[in-house]
Structure formats: structure tokens, C-alpha cells
Design a protein that fits this description.
Strand content: 15-25%
Protein name: Ubiquitin carboxyl-terminal hydrolase 40 isoform X7
Order of helices and strands: EEEEEEHEEHEH
Keywords: Hydrolase
Number of strands: 9
Largest sheet: 5 strands, mixed
Helix content: 10-25%
GO molecular function, one term: hydrolase activity
Distance between the termini: 109 Å
């Protein structure tokens, strides 16, 4: 079991780490050392989550009480810093999905949360394993898509797969109007992944060449010849 840092940095020791009540904690399962699934322990017992025997649980201390409903989703929102390829520290946003997991609903919630006009924000989901940001279509773009092709507007499905704990970048179009959501860190991460992929490819090619040389350099043993048998010829008389 581990502890996640709060949104505001705190220095805690084992003696002064006091939690007033479970409402001041979030419990997550861990996958690949990242929070994956939010456990709403006030609604269900742990056995109802059907956790594996070796499941890791991570506890996140909170600054204030939190009682999440069954339709509430916790997202890490980050505001883009104008003129820089960087973001401000994340702020948690609770989104009520009772009316659906639609892009329009999420955009409205974020616009209200940031006190910005709906048409003056752009948002994107972050995929840390790929170092990529996927923009969530604006309200007008969603309407245009529906006219061309009927498609279910559900951010839980492809290509967003939105869930608790995901990071959503926010861009204020009143002060910044470009379409780029990436950061310098993303560039470095992609370059590292590219170099690792090239190194792996070269390693596989080297092994393939070495394996070919080994087989070509080995002489196959000659097939043993059978011993010669004596041959007797008898000439018969035909008179």
C-alpha cells in the first residue's frame, strides 16, 4: 500500500499523519505504477470489487471531505500556460455523468469550473504512455459529425476511454488560440521511445545476422557410406 501526494504539497511523518475520517481519503488500485481504478468504499465493500489477491491499493489524502456519488468521475485538469508549452499544476474536477458521458457535458462542466465561456475553451485527454494529447471535439464539431454519420457520443468508448484519474488539458482561447497541446516533456518522451524502438530493431537485426552466420559456418556431417558388398557372377551354359 502506498500514499499519493496531495494537490498541495504536505510534509507528513508517521506520527502526525492523521486522517479525520475516510471521507478525507481516496483509494485507487495501481496498474503499471499508476492509479487505475477509484474504489468508492463508502458505496461498496472491497469484496464486491472482485480484486485480485496481489492487487496494490494506493491511498490519496485529501484537503477536504469528499463523498463521491455512483456517477461522479474524478479528473485531473491542467490549465495550459499561455505562451509556454507547459501546464499549471493539476486541479481535481468532479464531473457528474448522470446525464451521460458526452463531450458537450464535459466541456460545460469544465467551462463552469474555470469560469470561462464554453466557446472559449479547448480540452484534450492525455495519454501518458504515448506522450500524446487527444483533443475532445468542440460542441459545433460534434453536431457536424452527427450530420455526417450517426455515432454514439460516449467518452468512455474509443478513442478516449475516459475514466477516473485521467488528465485533461484545458486551453483558454481568450489568451491562446493555437491547436498544440503538447509539452517539451512530451517531445523528450517520444524521442526516448523512438530511440528505444530503433535500438530494439538494431538488436534484433544483429541477432538475426549472427544466427545466419552460425548456421552458414557449420558444416553438415557427410552421410556415411554403406560397406561394399562382394558380387559373384556365374555364367551359365545355354547349350
Amino acid at each position: 500500500m502506498c500514499y499519493m501526494p496531495c494537490s498541495v504539497a504536505m510534509t507528513l511523518s508517521s506520527s502526525d499523519f492523521v486522517i479525520p475520517s475516510p471521507a478525507f481519503l481516496r483509494a485507487w488500485t495501481l496498474e503499471s505504477k499508476r492509479p487505475s481504478r477509484l474504489l468508492r468504499t463508502n458505496l461498496q465493500q472491497l469484496k464486491e470489487y472482485k480484486l485480485g489477491r496481489k492487487t496494490e491499493i494506493c491511498l490519496e489524502p485529501l484537503q477536504k471531505e469528499e463523498n463521491l456519488g455512483p456517477h461522479d468521475v474524478v479528473l485531473r485538469t491542467q490549465m495550459r500556460i499561455p505562451g509556454k508549452r507547459a501546464y499549471a499544476p493539476h486541479v481535481d474536477l468532479v464531473w457528474d455523468t448522470a446525464c451521460g458521458w458526452t463531450a458537450g457535458s464535459l466541456r460545460q462542466r469544465i467551462a463552469h469550473f474555470c469560469s470561462l465561456p464554453l466557446e472559449k475553451i479547448e480540452i484534450a485527454k492525455y495519454f501518458p504512455e504515448k506522450f500524446e494529447w487527444l483533443p475532445v471535439s468542440s460542441w459545433n464539431q460534434q453536431i457536424t459529425k452527427r450530420k455526417k454519420k450517426k455515432k454514439q457520443d460516449n467518452l468512455q468508448g474509443a478513442p478516449y476511454y475516459l475514466k477516473d484519474g485521467d488528465t485533461v488539458g484545458i486551453k483558454n482561447l481568450l489568451v491562446e488560440d493555437d491547436e498544440d497541446f503538447s509539452t517539451v516533456r512530451d517531445d523528450l518522451g517520444k524521442e526516448t521511445q523512438k530511440q528505444l524502438a530503433l535500438g530494439k530493431q538494431k538488436s534484433q537485426e544483429t541477432l538475426r545476422v549472427q544466427s545466419s552466420d552460425v548456421f552458414s559456418g557449420v558444416k553438415m556431417p557427410a552421410r556415411p557410406r554403406a560397406p561394399e558388398a562382394s558380387l559373384s557372377i556365374h555364367v551359365g551354359s545355354f547349350r
